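Structure representation:
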Amino acid sequence: MSAETLLTAIALVFVIEGLLYALCPNMLHKLLEMASTMPAEHIRMMGLLVASIGVFFVWLVQTFM
């Protein structure tokens, strides 16, 4: 993976996160409120699950495209 690809991926994360804040701030606010009541372990497990799915998709793209 080149540095250009990595920086592009990081930039896309910022674009997607920015769009979430811009397009549906109320939903995001509700999600943050909900997350504040969840135990840290549940949030950690959800983060690991989402990160694992992301790694899987990167692997798929790198392998088959």
Notes: The mean pLDDT is 93. The first helix runs from residue 3 to 23. The chain is about 90% helix and 0% strand. The CA atoms of residues 14 and 48 lie 19 Å apart.
